[in-house]
Amino acid sequence: MSLYDDAVLVLKGYEDQPDLRQTYLEHLEAHPDGMWKACGDGHITASALVIDPSRGSVLLTLHKKMRMWLQMGGHCEPADDTMASAALREATEESGIAGLTLLSGGPVRLDRHHTPCAWHLDVQYAALAPAGAVEAISEESLDLRWFAYDEVAEVADDSVVRLLEATRARLAA
Prior knowledge:
The protein is α+β, with helices and mostly antiparallel strands. The chain has helices at about 5-15, 20-30, 85-95, 150-155, 160-170, and strands spanning about 45-50, 55-65, 70, 70-75, 100, 110-115, 120-130, 140-150.
């Protein structure tokens, strides 16, 4: 199965945000290259909020290009087999933390936002940090920092706050 096919299956199985989910599916139907950065009309991206529930904190990156505190994530690559593996790869690369595991249940949220390269149709997951995880800054970041849940709204935009809220709700379920 291709990454494109996996994305369609993941989106069809995602039950929240029906209007946005439909926008993603229509984008893929209209753009066979809609998984890739080269698609100028926008592309599917994968991200993951790195969370440590035992510490009540999340790891955010101060993105070099966007100059904003964000979850880990970015463009899909040809070697990615699934949306989940793309999100986990991005989270691992950008956090420097080995042993991350995705929170079960598939994507936590969808978020469509404009970036300098194009519209990003982001499929957002959550990744659990292992006990004692130590982060390491990547070349894509200006900084990398753990924030307590109640500090996130002070440093990040509403999309990150909504992702944290949805992640915490899934953890509590």
